Amino acid sequence: MGKLYIAGTMLISEDCNNIYNFRSASGRVSYDPSTKTLTLDNATITCYSEECECIRNYIDGGITIKLIGSNTIIPNKERGIYNNQHLTIKGVTSDATLTVRNSHMNPEIGYLSDACIYNEDQVEVTVKDCALIVDGEGKGLVGGKWHFINCTVRAKGGRFGSFIWLDEVPSFKDCTPPAGTYWKKNENGSYSLFDADDKVVTDWVTVAEAMGDTNDSSYTGGAGNTSDSGYTGGSGNTSEADYTRQRHEDINAGLREIKHNAYALLNSDMYDDNYSYPEAIEDASDRDFAYILDKRESSFSEKEIYVRGSGYENIYPGAILFVDSDITSGSPNPLGRIPRSKISIYGDFLAGGNPSQSDIDPNNSDVRMAINNIMHTLLSDSRYDAPGAQRPRTKIHTSQKSLMMDLGVDSSFAGCNVNVRASTTSSEQSFVQATTLDQDYFTIRLKDDWHQDPASLFADEVTWDDLSRELNGKAIAIVTSVTYGRTFSYMKEYSARQFTFDSSQKVSGYGQSADASQSLAESSSYTNDEIFNLGGTSLTISALRGKSTQQELEEAMADNMRFSHANQGVITKYTLQLITGPTPGTVVRPLYSGTQYQIGYTKCPRRLFAHIDVSRVHIGPGKVKVQLDVDCFRITEDGEIDIFKSVDGGSSERDQDPWYYTFSNSRNREYGNLDSGEYIYKNPLLRIRSKRGGGSYTADDERRLTAREMETGALNISLSGSVYDSVKIRDLEPFNP
């Protein structure tokens, strides 16, 4: 008996002809337990869990994997195929191919977990009548006894080896072993493939199918004899198949030589905040208050963001793009003048199967029509439920750049007119509270059958000369999947002229919780609001304004936006795989680096009115001294802070005089003697000293005043204790005088 697992799910009898309904499988996948045959018919098996293999074989006596067309296995940090029993991989069509691509190498979850195909001791694997491509970041083919019959194998094991720790030297029939290599016996008795420099082979290595006589065509090449497409034959007869193969080899060889520039996909400008914020601003009305910049730096490096820009019509499954900085600008540059071959796409859904469309011209219009056909099939399927989870969030943004980054937009900002700014001419600062709902509707994928032959992406008449002239040394990549969904954001703009906030306590920046800001934003009037809607149904501002809590607001946004035939969303993210370079199929991503800031302004008064409450202090004949140590500043014409005076316990009695008072009972007092346009710098030190009736003052307590305590310029100071022991600050509370 034994068991067979597909992407972590154990097959039972009712599953055997229903594997295509598994979320992990697309194309046609079935298993016949009577013959122990797993059939992959233009299928892709993707393992979404980090703790399971795509195929796990415990079937007694082993299984056969029968290949029809192009098939792909993509694990996620585990092995692609694990064999506890024997395995035969056999092609039944002339184009039968199996690609196992494991791009993860994670030693934390197991030393052998990153192999493409891993076999236990004495397990035999036969590869027959097909092409096998094994692309491993850590290891390629590991363990077991291998037999290669009339097949082509390309294998790579990036760190440890392409063929390693085999039980014996493989056998080869009607195919040729890897050239320029030899099998070396390890200390543990296993065998690994080594190169001429006596190093284990980790790069691509090929087992080639044996070539027979192909001179069965009437086409005759020769010196000076050139075909219409530009290929020049050698001396002797060459068939059309030979010419096609040579054309593909020329294109693929040329593409492999073009490497992409990783920095071209790194944008360090779009979300980098280089705005010059004023260091300090004055309240222009009476100059009794000033505002000091509180600027907290938050750097980010190589963050993956998908920008909504003006060039998204060039992004669709099957689109070929130049790998340059235009991708990260939101306006990618397509490869437009080279004829293309037809493509096939399929839907990747949580339920409802994986409907597909074939024989599509790879242009936006035809692909869009094919996607509509897929969606019609999907929405007509009663098994299909609502797509992708909704992800609501609320954030406070104190810079325009962080708001753009949060929404994934470029500088055009989709016509929205909410502002995050700090003015140099008044005390006004505005910030935006954005409540955003993201949702993925569905993903459309390109059938993964081109990696081993990138030339197949181009029409039959295209030669390497044609392609080389168009590329001009630039790398290209193909869009292999596109996720469609919606982003909806309700943004409220607030102004700091109407209330004051302490950025160190209440304002959070990109990627952090806004909980501490919530009560502030809800209880304060806003100056402007705006809806930013991409891909969802229309929802009016009036439907959102009346919501009193964030939960009510988020529920209203979720309930009023529906997925339908007429509303299929917009691009939310996509996958790009390199066509050029030594390893076609390598995923590249648009990345962003930069520096952003949490911006706030701390309110600083010209004087401090204080009510000193000593009702809880045993004073008797003694006294209590309440003193402020302050830095005093002016604002220059350039908006900079000029601290012109500091007062503390070491200052002269004349300088200290306006900044302290003595008390034997509760009183109101005003601290400071500054002129208009002069202010108390943030966080002055409040010091409490006391003395008995004829004694000297002793230091009892002190505290730095926060921005919140200073923001109104008036403060209740409550003390407790005894001059015979110590006097402490009991409570501080700002009030409006």
Automatic annotation (TrEMBL):
Q: Which Pfam families match?
A: Thiol_cytolysin
Q: Which InterPro entries match?
A: Thiol_cytolysin, Thiol_cytolysin_ab_sf, Thiol_cytolysin_sf
Query: Which Gene3D superfamilies does the annotation name?
Result: 3.30.1040.20, Perfringolysin, Thiol-activated cytolysin superfamily/Thiol-activated cytolysin, alpha-beta domain
Q: In its UniProt entry, what is this protein called?
A: Thiol-activated cytolysin
Q: Which SUPFAM superfamilies match?
A: Perfringolysin
Task: List the residue ranges forming a coiled coil, or say none.
Answer: none
Region Disordered: what ranges?
A: 216-241
Q: Where is the composition biased (Polar residues)?
A: 216-230
> Which terms does the record give in the GO molecular function aspect?
cholesterol binding
